Amino acid sequence: MEDCIFCKIVAKEIPSDIVLENSEFLAFHDINPKAPVHILIIPKSHYDSFQDIPPVVMANMTPFVQEVATKLGVAKSGYRLITNIGKNGGQEVGHIHFHLLGGAKLKWGHFSDSNPQGNL
Ligand code: 5GP
Ligand code: ZN
Hints:
The protein is an alpha+beta fold. Helices cover 23% and strands 21% of the residues.
């Protein structure tokens, strides 16, 4: 998709530090890591978010994610897989991507302030 930064990464028009690649998926290091291991996993085809992705793509992605985790050495120690969806989900790049975070014990907490109702 034109003007999509992750489509440009898929096309190698923008460089990235690739971890694993096959015909359907690409895994690369996040440019601004929030954990010792922070990988972005994307389908090469453009879908705006999880809300748009066909189930078969999700199914095919499963072994790819597992292989990335093994390759990065976090399959046994554990990791977190996140996809942010839309404005309230905090999605900044409009090409679906899964954050694979690991390499340390991760904290849990999502609201933008201490209000348990969130900050919607
Ligand atoms: P989001 O907030 O949309 O869930 O996450 C977008 C992620 O993409 C962020 O963690 C950000 O650091 C990462 N990112 C944005 N632009 C680039 C880029 O050009 N290269 C790489 N490797 N990561 C990027
Ligand atoms: Zn795209």
